[in-house]
């Protein structure tokens, strides 16, 4: 089983000058440390306007900084919001390719829809459209990264003319693609579309085995890829804090994990938020003990299996490994976690826990892909290869276009679209006056 860390850049109130700068600086140091000790992935969220819960609104910038501070760790968007109203598909393709180049081919392309009212309505996204928007954008963005030129698209949620999107990524045809999954149904959708499942849900080992087995059965039998390559993998999230003393680990890690769950509920399920005024941390701290206990019961302690001493973590993680989980992602920075506690925790994990899994992972991955090879081949044969343009129409620079419009006007064939006539007259008039 591989391991990753999760950067959500939580910053509970009260905020003081320099707190955000410190938060980003410390997060970058944590990524450097994760790379040094041999952790495989760093995943960085994209959220907007979610005060205290997530200040990671430009993950492409943060990951670019990570790329220059690290050597081996994979750089994951966990996730990129794919709605064209938030991120135009061409801009996503450009940013992914650029990051892939400057990182030496280490990008993981996580995709998602977003789901909070705070975010969707701010960008004018209708809740009922977010799933088809995501699918349309994922499919076309994948094509953009491997076609020369991209023939253009006239879709329901975005349209653009033919262009050659540059640069192209180092990884061909594009970086591995993942889908954010919050439940079994969305994990099954990821399997049907040939995408890795970024499972942002807390499940125990028994449930994990059921979810993973179901994912791979679906991949084998019903996969029709949405992108230009498949990525059969399941990653799951867990709370994390490691200390030689179990009680210390619980004391340092439990509150932050609970705050993560509280923030999820606030923004996605039952919260009332006043932008710039709601104090989420204060409200969380006032939550009665019964409310915390309810959160704990709902999560079935699954999200806490990474909180404990090294021996406990080895035992708990081995159960998830046996369940078939491909990657375990640590929720290592939440609430008011102290930077020194996070770093000490990661160091101890790297020394005493990670070596128990590293050698076994090499053999397991080899066996996995040998077993999946015929199913991967079958799925890849279903990929809809984009048709190349037989003739690529030229695109004239504006002055040439305006001169052509002048000629067309003299011949009585000028474009009479609303606004175009006055625009043409202004440009031609300007050109004539200069003459």
Please provide the count of β strands.
13
Major beta sheet summary:
8 strands, parallel, barrel
What is the radius of gyration? 25 Å
Which overall shape is indicated by the principal axes computed on the Cα atoms?
A: globular
| Series of H and E elements | EHEHEEHEHHEEEHEHEEHHHEHEHHHH
Regarding CATH, which class of the largest domain? Alpha Beta
Kindly report the CATH topology of the largest domain: TIM Barrel
Question: Could you please describe the fold and organization of this structure?
Answer:
- The protein is 49% helix and 11% strand.
- The strands form three sheets. The protein has an eight-stranded parallel beta barrel, surrounded by seven helices. The protein has a two-stranded antiparallel ribbon with strand order 6-7.
- α6 packs parallel to α7.
- It is built from 15 helices and 13 strands.
Question: What is the topological layout?
Answer:
Elements: E1 2-7, H1 19-37, E2 41-44, H2 59-69, E3 74-77, E4 80-81, H3 89-102, E5 107-112, H4 117-120, H5 130-144, E6 153-154, E7 159-160, E8 177-181, H6 184-192, E9 196-199, H7 205-222, E10 234-239, E11 241-242, H8 246-270, H9 280-285, H10 289-299, E12 307-308, H11 310-322, E13 327-331, H12 339-353, H13 355-380, H14 398-410, H15 420-434
Parallel strand pairs: 1-2, 1-13, 2-3, 3-5, 4-5, 5-8, 8-9, 9-10, 10-13, 11-12
Antiparallel strand pairs: 6-7
Helix pairs in contact: 1-2, 1-12, 2-3, 3-5, 6-7, 7-11, 11-12
Characteristics:
single chain; 435 residues; alpha/beta; TIM Barrel; 2 domains; eight-stranded parallel β-barrel; two-stranded antiparallel sheet; 15 helices; 13 strands; disordered C terminus
């Amino acid at each position: 089983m591989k391991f990753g860390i999760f950067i959500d850049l939580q910053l509970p109130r009260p905020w003081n000058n320099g707190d955000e700068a410190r938060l980003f600086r410390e997060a970058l140091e944590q990524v450097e440390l994760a790379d040094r000790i041999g952790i495989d992935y760093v995943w960085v969220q994209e959220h907007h306007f979610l005060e205290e819960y997530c200040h990671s609104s430009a993950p492409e910038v943060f990951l670019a900084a990570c790329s220059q501070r690290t050597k081996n760790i994979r750089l994951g968007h966990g996730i990129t919001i794919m709605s064209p109203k938030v991120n135009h598909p061409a801009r996503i393709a450009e940013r992914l390719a650029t990051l892939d180049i400057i990182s030496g081919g280490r990008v993981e392309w996580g995709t998602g829809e977003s789901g909070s009212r705070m975010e969707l309505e701010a960008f004018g996204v209708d809740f009922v459209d977010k799933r088809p928007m995501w699918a349309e954008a994922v499919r076309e963005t994948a094509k953009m990264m491997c076609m020369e030129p991209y023939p253009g698209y006239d879709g329901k949620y975005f349209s653009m003319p033919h262009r050659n999107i540059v640069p192209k990524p180092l990884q061909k045809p594009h970086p591995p693609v993942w889908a954010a999954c919050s439940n079994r149904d969305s994990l099954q959708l990821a399997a049907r579309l040939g995408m890795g499942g970024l499972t942002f849900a807390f499940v125990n080992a028994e449930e994990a085995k059921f979810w993973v087995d179901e994912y791979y059965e679906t991949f084998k039998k019903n996969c029709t890829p949405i992108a230009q390559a498949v990525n059969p993998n399941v990653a799951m999230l867990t709370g994390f804090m490691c200390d030689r003393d179990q009680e210390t680990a619980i004391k340092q890690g439990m509150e932050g994990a609970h705050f993560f769950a509280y923030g999820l509920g606030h923004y996605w399920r039952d919260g009332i938020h006043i932008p710039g005024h709601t104090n989420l941390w204060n409200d969380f701290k006032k939550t009665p003990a019964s409310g915390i206990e309810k959160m704990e019961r709902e999560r079935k302690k699954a999200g806490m299996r990474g909180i404990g001493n090294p021996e406990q973590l080895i035992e708990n993680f081995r159960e998830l490994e046996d369940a078939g989980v491909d990657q375990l992602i640590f929720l290592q920075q939440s609430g008011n976690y102290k930077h020194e506690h996070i770093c000490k925790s990661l160091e101890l994990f790297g020394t005493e826990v990670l070596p128990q899994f590293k050698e076994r992972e090499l053999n397991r991955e080899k066996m996995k892909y040998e077993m999946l090879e015929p199913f991967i081949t079958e799925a890849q044969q279903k990929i809809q290869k984009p048709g190349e343009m037989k003739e690529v129409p030229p695109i004239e620079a504006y002055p040439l276009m305006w001169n052509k419009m002048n000629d067309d006007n003299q011949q009585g064939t000028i474009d009479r679209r609303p606004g175009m006539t006055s625009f043409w007259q202004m440009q031609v008039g300007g050109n004539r006056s200069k003459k």
